[in-house]
Amino acid sequence: MSDALVAHGLTHAYADGRVALHPMTFTVRAGERVALVGPNGAGKTTLFLRVAGVLPGQPGQLALAGLDPASPAHRAALPGKVGIVFQNPDDQLFAPTLREDVAFGPLNLGATAAEAVALAEETLARVGLPGAGNRTPHKLSGGEKRRAALAGVLAMRPELMLLDEPSMYLDPRGRRELIGLLNGLAGTMVIATHDLRFAAETCQRVLILDAGHLVADGPTATLFGNAALLDRHGLE
Hints:
Number of strands: 9
Order of helices and strands: EEEHEHEHHHEHEHEEHH
Shape: globular
Largest sheet: 6 strands, mixed
Radius of gyration: 18 Å
Distance between the termini: 33 Å
Oligomer: single chain
Strand content: 15-25%
Structural class: alpha/beta
Number of helices: 9
Mean pLDDT: 92
Low-confidence stretches: none
Number of domains: 1
């Protein structure tokens, strides 16, 4: 099994001098599902933005499918390798129809219009929204918006998916449906969440961050069974 993501001595400091990530090293293998958990301000979003190349960083700290997100030459190729599903799907859905929204990514990766539309329809069906291509994003339910945002990422066929608080604002039914959907998808995922039960039902491994430090890395059942560890880092 190959490595999908390698972090070696990864750090990040913002322009105001605030250190958001202290040196951390970890590897995510291809096909793994890893939960990224921690209290507010732990550094989860900063880590995601570094992996996606949105935030600049020091070269040599990250490797994703042979690419270094800190390299300007490599950064242009990242959209075809890594996809982010944002915490708020309204930040991700922008086109007049779902079909146009989901087709946007493939078009920008070089697909023809016909290929992009076919891929959009296929991917919408895959996330449980068959025949929804003509629907308007802002009229969808919260759970449907989550599915549509996920479809937009899946249509680009990334090697790694980053999901930021995917269960937030979902009702119990929408949450159960999302768990079923994610568990039915192949591929490598890193899921940032405050919902430990959601993490336990979708991920086999957990990284715990606190104040920018990677404080634990191990099997989900082992770490979540350690009440003292969770309490020490503000998790329950």
